[in-house]
Amino acid sequence: MTTPTATSAVGGAAPTSGSRSAGPERPTRRPRRSGRGRWVGWLFVAPAFLVYAVFVLRPMAVSVQYSLYEWNGVAASTFVGLRNYANLFTDSTLYGSILNAFQLIVFFSFVPVTLGLLIATSIRQIAASKLAVVARTVLFLPQVIPLVAAGMVWSWLLSSTGFVNQALSWIGLGDVTRAWLGDFTFALPAVGVIGAWVLLGLCTLLLLSGITKIDPSLYEAARLDGAGPVREFFAITLPSLRQEIGVCVTVTVIAALASFDIIYISTQGGPGNETMVPGLQIYYLAFADREIGQASALGVALMVLVLAVVLPIQWLTKERDR
Amino acid sequence: MIVNRREAFVGRALLVLLMLITLVPFVSLFVTALHPSGTYPLGISWPASPQWGNFAAAFQAADMGALLLSSALIVVGVVPASLLLGTMAGYAFGNLRMRGHRAVFLLFVLGLTLPFEGILTPLYFQIRDLGLLNTRWAIILPLIGLFMPFSVLWMRAHFVNVPGELSEAASVDGASTWQQFWRIQVPLATPALTSLGILLFLWTWNQFLLAIVLVDDASKRTMAGALGAFQGQYGTDIPLLCAGAVLILAPTLAVFLIFQRRFVAALLQGSVKG
Questions:
Q1: Which class for A12: exposed (0-12), middle (13-18), buried (19 or more C-beta within 10 A)?
Q2: pTM, whole model, 2 decimals?
Q3: Mean pLDDT value of segment A241-257
Q4: Predicted local distance difference test score (pLDDT) of residue A38
Q5: Taking residues A103-110, what's their average pLDDT?
Q6: Interface with B, mutate which of A10, A17, A28, A117 (most B CBs under 10 A)
Q7: CATH of A90-317, one of 1.10.3720.10, 4.10.280.10, 1.10.10.10, 1.10.443.10
Q8: Range with the lowest mean pLDDT among A57-61, A311-315, B77-81?
Q9: pLDDT value at position A321?
Q10: Residue B57 domain-assigned?
Q11: Where do the H-state alpha helices sit in B130-259?
């Protein structure tokens, strides 16, 4: 029943042509099946593609179209060529929002991944303990609640009478207390802390699940060779986790560049434009300022930006030896 | 494995610290919700007389019953349809692999990292022209489309690993592709479908952006969207606001704690595949 041709056809990499060329050997069955599968397959894809095309691909294309016009959503539109894109480089609030998003990457991405690596490494040996099982549930809580809720809770924690200032006073740092989200210098880092809180647990658990797949004998060998925890980390843990780190960085970088919910609820982009990000800026441009063309141009730029950042990360961290 | 006692201790301490940091916001929220309505409590402090009535007041003010119903309706609109369409397309891409499927599959991959804000503006006008603004369809239909890349990739990843002998055997028995799909492939895909269903439920329930842009009436929104409206209305009454937030979080947290094993597994897999 099972022949080499059949297995190669399902091996994942082999395209349909492989099973088609196997046709002559078994003229009665294989060609008919793959022949029928060819058009029936499109019927299976059609409904999904239809919804995707109408509600995602079409708006994407229309976004590009809108971005070339000046339009207030009601009156006639004027073709302006690439002017809306040029504005992205000259208008300080527009490129400022993109720069802010890049600064958020430090908090949304760098902090959770680095801390996650440190924590996952330290708890490697107790990964199977009862405490770690409880921790898996607790650390996932921020992933389960809506980001809006996280933003709300933290606005309260970071307010002038909130817990953060209370805790700072306890440890004798009463002088630095302030309304963190309303402070021109600290608003963006404060928003970043909220993102870091949301993403730290996810990164830690992803990295931990990667670490527990590493062959323990590698660590034993390193110990016998007299390697300390630091050498162990750089020689074994870090290289083995390339894929997991790639996943964490990708997820968190997208969360930073496309952030909306947390900032909408905690600062609305203020004070001034200190915490303005592209997502929120698009919302304001389109639905408050009625500058549909400019909003669409920023939207296109954001889509391209995310791809431009994510693709290299994917390429750098994907498993090459498989 | 060599377990170093000192290292194990440091690990435990770190883990406890991390859990505390995760839990502090929830504790703060809950404690603040018990303070008398209209006051400005200082940090985390237990109130002299806990106002349990705040929860009832917030339940009424936020019209929780209607909100729960609305969110449930949206989930019912999004999740089964996404599962069905995603599974069918995933089956075609993973198992049938008709000629030219790669190009179309790439189109789906393209949408995987799409920030929703990127298509927000045209989507608004499209929904308006369809006459769906301010209805639940305005959230349901775009979400099905936006979740499609992930659903298709997820189900394709499952079907690619199903041995081909299975469909071979079935087609020998004379089963049509459609029968094979329903009687053999879908029942075998239950674990993958369950995890995908959990993720889609969570992402729908927590959807905020589409809700605030496309639906003005808070009682037709998702839970997350309603929370935004609730903050706009009661933003100055911190204890009441916190009580409302606790109520809005409660259903998700309850579902999470009941199905926590599946949730954790789904979320871990979900980010790896996404």
A1: exposed
A2: 0.86
A3: 91
A4: 65
A5: 94
A6: A10
A7: 1.10.3720.10
A8: A311-315
A9: 45
A10: no
A11: 137-160, 165-172, 177-180, 186-188, 190-205, 209-214, 223-234, 238-258
User: Do the Cβ atoms of A101 and A277 come closer than 8 Å?
Assistant: yes
Please, which pLDDT band fits residue A315 given cuts at 50, 70 and 90?
confident
Pairing type for strands A78-79 and A69-70 reads: antiparallel
pLDDT in tens, A25-41: 343 333 334 444 468 88
With left for phi above 0 and alpha for psi between -120 and 50, is residue A81 left, alpha or beta?
left
For residue B193 the two structure tokens come to: 């479908």
- A146 neighbourhood in chain B, CB within 8 Å: 205-206, 208, 223-224, 227, 248-249, 252
In terms of CA atoms, which chain A residue is nearest residue B224? A146
Per the domain annotation, does B56 fall within a domain?
no
Any long-range contacts for A60-64 (C-beta under 8 Å, 24+ apart)? A60/A303, A60/B114, A60/B118, A60/B119, A60/B122, A62/B122, A62/B125, A62/B126, A63/A296, A63/A299, A63/A300, A63/A303, A63/B118, A63/B119, A63/B121, A63/B122, A64/A296, A64/A300
Query: Is residue B13 situated within a structural domain?
Result: no
Q: What is the identity of the amino acid at A39?
A: W
How large a percentage of chain A has pLDDT more than 70? 87
ipTM of the complex: 0.88
**Closest Cα of chain A to B239: distance in Å?**
10
- The pLDDT of residue B273: 57
- Tell me the one-letter amino acid at A111: V
- Amino acid symbol at A171: I
Alpha-carbon distance values, B245 to A148, A302, B86, B145, B230 (Å): 10, 31, 33, 29, 9
Q: What is the pLDDT of residues A178-213, one digit of tens each?
A: 889 888 989 999 999 999 999 998 899 889 888 888
- Written as six digits, the tokens of A198 are 């949301």
Tens of pLDDT, residues B59-108: 888 888 888 899 999 999 999 999 999 999 999 998 888 888 889 999 99
For A158, A186, A316, B97, B225, the CA distances from B214, given in Å and listed in that order, are 30, 33, 38, 37, 10
- The mean predicted confidence, pLDDT, of chain A is 83
The domain segmentation of chain A, as residue ranges, is: 4-66, 90-317
- Please report, rounded to a whole number, the percentage of residues in chain B having pLDDT higher than 90: 32
- Inter-chain touch A1–B242, beta carbons under 8 Å: no
Domain count of chain B?
Answer: 1
Q: Closest CB to A296: pick one of B122, B172, B224.
A: B122
* DSSP letter (8 states) at residue A12: S
Chain B environment of A141 (Cβ under 8 Å): 22-23, 26, 253, 256
Residue B148 lies inside a defined structural domain of this protein:
yes
Report the CATH number that the domain containing residue B166 is assigned in CATH: 1.10.3720.10
Residue B71 structural domain: 63-224+249-273
